Amino acid sequence: MKVTEVEHHGIAPIPPAEQTSRPRDLFRLAFGGANTFATIILGTLPIAYGLSFRDAVLATTLGVVVGGLVLAPMALFGPRTRTNNAVSSGAHFGVVGRCVGSFLSLLTAITFFAISVWVSGDAVAGAAQRLFGFDGGPVLRGFAYGVIAIATLVVCIYGYRFMLLVNRVAVVLGTAIMLLGVFAYGGSFDPGYAGTGTYALGTFWPTFTLAALTALANPISFGAFLGDWARYIPASFSKRSLLTAPFLAQVATLLPFGFGIATATLVANPADYITGLTAISPLWYAIPLIVVALIGGLSTGTTSLYGTGLDFSSIFPRLSRVRATLLIGTLSVAFIFVGNFVLDMVSSINTFATLIVLCTSPWMVIMMIGFVQRRGYYDVADLQVFNEGRRGGRYWFTRGVNWRAMAAWIPATTLGLLCANTPMIAGPWRDIAGGVDVSLLVTLLTAAVAYPVLVKLFPEPPEVFAPARIPVTTAQPAEA
Length: 480
What we know:
Layout: H1 23-32, H2 37-48, H3 53-71, H4 77-81, H5 85-88, H6 90-93, H7 99-132, H8 137-158, H9 160-185, H10 204-220, H11 226-230, H12 239-252, H13 254-264, H14 273-280, H15 283-315, H16 321-341, H17 345-374, E1 390-391, H18 403-419, H19 439-457, E2 476-477
Antiparallel strand pairs: 1-2
Keywords: Membrane, Transmembrane, Transmembrane helix, Transport
Subcellular location: Membrane
GO molecular function, one term: transmembrane transporter activity
């Protein structure tokens, strides 16, 4: 398939002959999708929370590394199932229960598409004002949002190959321009920056934990999407190479995170970062800043929006991948305008980022445990039962839902939300550890313990484990 051809594949299994990508392509997409202004903005938040430069770096590094380790195994499914991770999750949640994964991909797509368009549009408007002295106000910002959103939708509609090309450019160009920032801001940067002295959550450790969780949201956000690209990689590649590619991609995001942390110490108000950054930027760096904003906005927006359009085309068969992408993109654009001009966009994004971490991480844990229990075996045809309007198959469980997985995911997510301690989401048990947010630890441990225990007490059907043990019931057409 050529780059300029609209991708015809939906969530049906990719033909083995078209699995021509390699783990390094997965690295490019995962890194390119995060080597952007959206990640830079996340990097500024620890400084906005009141941390010093050193503590912001430590919290961010901790979040990125832990998140990368949790994310990496999600690259193992696509090469085996030849479809995306939401559909692959049907092996563990049931072919109907896999709609949980579709919900998570929608939540993530709206959040990160909104971040990418929002910050890119603001950066373009701010740089234009810096270059030409023209303050276009809300009209210019709205125009910039619209242009970037439309460009993102076009790339998503063309599909995987076009996305791969955009991300190849984004990785090289974005990295070079951020490194160029050393010369733009290096003379003013002070590594001894001590912070504001006022912590977002009152004291140091709760605020430090909040900063780490904010950084962790970035790698976790890729969990629902990694299979969108990994499905183009042959299963013949080693597990080590598949695990290494997304992990190293997340480690590499310490570059845009670091750019955000360092430059946030220079602006007058870290909570109004975009305006402050364009104000202190030398004129010669204003144009490169626009390039980072545009290319980065395309990269982040496409990696999140593409997968959701792909997935929703399977839940609503009347919607093709292109139509589903346009629908989700339109809803996301509406959220951007309402969030920016009516609500507090920063607070809205903080809320969505928390929800992504606490809802997606237990889902990922259950899938990883299931992968180990099944020894990596998946029936490619039976994973498509729901998408094709049929019933039955290995993964039908109880009316299409594996209640064991659901009975682990729902309490894990609920307990995490009850223990959360963030500016926007504060659960009734937020002080259980002296104000330190232990919601992620609670949600991960609950899922990691509950699912294996439930499977032990109530064994899953034996046919899901190996193709030769018990004859598999042929999937039948769904009733009208």
